[in-house]
Amino acid sequence: MFMDSVQIETTAPLNVEFTQIASPPTAISRIPKNTIRTSLKASTADSVLASVYSLGTGGILLSNLLVELGASPVVFGMLSSIPMLVNLIQPLGAYLSERSTSRFQYSLRTHGIGRLLWLVLVIGIVTASLGAIAPHQLVILTLLIVLFSNLLGGLGTASWLSWVAMIVPRRLRGRYFGTRNSAANFTTLICVPMAGLVVSHWYGGSLQGYGVVLLISIVFGIMGLGCQYFQVDMNPRSQNTYYGKLPQTSEIQSDPTKDESSEVTQSTDLLLLPSSSIHLPQDQLTSSIWKNSNFLIFLLYFCFWNLAVNLSSPFFNLYMLDTLDLDVSYVTIYNSLQAGATLLMLILWGKLADKIGNRPILICIGILVGVTPLLWLGIGANRLDIWLWLPLLHILAGGTWAAIDLCSNNIQLGIAPIKNQSIYFAIAAAVAGVSGALGTTIGSFLVQFAQSGGLLGLFALSGLFRLIALVPLMFLQEPSRS
Fold it and tell me: Which CATH code of 1.20.1640.10, 3.40.50.300, 1.20.1250.20, 1.20.1260.10 fits the domain covering 39-225+282-475?
């Protein structure tokens, strides 16, 4: 749904012109422009490496592994629901992160360990190749790795999102995230077909081929954390302490006579304030959330949208790999076409979002995304569908989901207040996770009753629910972009 939340590591002080967070300043410090630029470039490089990590630890390649191991549709439902369900832990992660003194050290303890856990699956694949463990045991091991790595990721996601929200100025978010996500999708466009060919044609079999791809993906994931060494670190306590004394990012008015780099510096003045023990009491925080009607409307939309989408989204790959019996190399090519369409459209959607806002795009493109599952109803295993309609469907999905992911992310960044910001992000993620997991669970059990007919009926039901989920957006007020 949202961009891959790749985290940061900083083991040595960043060479910039302000007092480090380890020794809190006593006055507001202005972050130099070059430091902000370096941070944004580091985040972009991180997203590129993270996309390689993601293709090995999820998506079509992991789905193909489970198909090869003879996993049932319920297992596919669990595979998709686990990353969403563990979002319930995000409020705890946000609570812990707000009491840390370094965003980047906190994320190193969460995402870093979570990525290294996948090495256990590499060992499991080697063991299975030697015949020491049965396929169903490897399926269980895979689900356990998915569970624990996503639990650790869930502890760090809200902190990362709050971090990025403070670095990227509001008026530049559409363009920046459009460029960032385009770089990640270009990497996916290139790497997914290559990985699919390795898995499909590895001399030792597809199981060993996947093990090789997974190991390479883990290495790239760790390299991504290394890139975040160059991203400016922040103290969460400082962000919360002076919220009442300084304007929120959404309230900072841009001076049209200043260039965008000046705005970058202006929007981050409050990031490195002295830390303090002042925090909003829990009862006041809960009250402020319930009084934020705009945030609650967004939660309603987010909840029903994720339920509707995840009724069907985990099963499109299953339909192609199992029901249509397509080779994994074909499906990876389709996924590359989808990534290419996302790449081409992200920058356009980013500029358009900065110009007209995110809400109109979410409504209009959401309707198109809503009817997309219905287009799968006539897809079969004939040549016309394999070489024309399936590629076109993936291109359509890539272009439309580029808008949905980007604008959903941007509008959430705009709605959440600066103080205890990661708490708001965590609540949204938890709500979306529960509803998404519920949708996947319902879908997996519905598929069990009838094979291809069950899948096609599920696609139609998902399309209807997606359209209904757009209704709350009619009442959502998007914050000013100035």
Answer: 1.20.1250.20
